[in-house]
Specification:
about 40% helix, 2 domains, 2-enoyl-CoA Hydratase, Chain A, domain 1, four-stranded mixed beta sheet, about 15% strand, Lyase 2-enoyl-coa Hydratase, Chain  A, domain 2, six-stranded mixed beta sheet, alpha/beta
């Protein structure tokens, strides 16, 4: 069975990450499947809104570190694929909903943040696991444009997880739903949106997205790139990745 499933219900497209044995981690095959599905949604004039979700107890556990190490790449960068993903690159003009059914870690957190709306189970877990693995977190996305309270942003930047319930309380999540009601709630949310003029919804959301994408000052971006290079070569990052694969606690040296 495909690692990414695509389904249509009327004007609603449902894209499901289907790799539960790896907690829907972002390996090359899953990234290809997502890119193909989002291109299909973008090209379908009869698909007006999309829901992204995952199977099992995870929305998406982020980068498939084991796969990266098996290919000889000890980094936290996503593998390159030959297709452009219009959702990841924020090029879609139609509404998107993330139905977060569990863990949304690292790149999975980014996926959830790229949706226009988020519906989550109360025990969902949002975490910037790049920090835990010794890298730079998504400061320019999750920590700035989501307009999270400083205290929450600081916790995320230091590697603490954010529960679905708390994410709802601070405004990152639009709706909470119990696991057995998650897709029902997401579909009802999408259906309610479809009762409004679709172009008006699209254009108003386009303005909201433009405001979210305001540029981070160039000096901050330069500093982030410099710090990322330093961490990429650090012993602590290498140790964190080894410990993750070997399923043992890491021993850090702060170097």
């Amino acid at each position: 069975m495909s690692v990414v499933l695509y389904e249509k219900r009327g004007h609603i497209a449902i894209i499901t990450m289907n790799r539960p044995e790896r907690r829907n981690a972002m390996g090359r095959e899953l990234l290809m499947g997502l890119a193909e599905s989002w291109q299909r949604f973008a090209a379908d004039d009869d698909a007006w809104v999309a829901i992204l979700t995952g199977t099992g107890n995870s929305f998406c556990a982020g980068l498939d570190i084991k796969e990266r190490l098996e290919t000889g790449t000890a980094s936290l960068e996503l593998p390159q694929i030959p297709l452009r993903d219009p959702f990841w690159h924020e090029e879609l003009e139609k509404p998107t909903i993330a139905a977060v059914n569990g863990y949304a870690l690292g790149g999975g957190f980014f996926l959830a943040s790229k949706a226009d709306f988020r519906i989550a189970v109360p025990n969902a877990v949002f975490q910037l696991t790049e920090v835990v693995r010794g890298g730079i977190a998504g400061w320019d996305m999750v920590l700035t444009r989501e307009n999270l309270p400083w205290a929450i942003a600081a916790e995320l930047a230091a590697g603490w997880p954010l529960s679905g319930e708390r994410a709802y309380q601070v405004g990152f999540v639009n709706r909470l739903a119990e696991p057995e009601k998650l897709m029902e709630t997401a579909l009802a949310f999408a259906q309610e949106m479809l009762e409004r003029p679709p172009l008006a919804v699209d254009y108003n959301l386009r303005l909201v997205r433009a405001l979210r994408r305001q540029q981070v000052p160039q000096e901050v971006r330069e500093q982030a790139r410099q710090l990322e290079r330093l961490l990429r070569d650090s012993e602590d990052m290498k140790e964190s990745l080894r410990a993750f694969v070997e399923r043992r606690p890491p021993v850090f040296q702060r170097r």
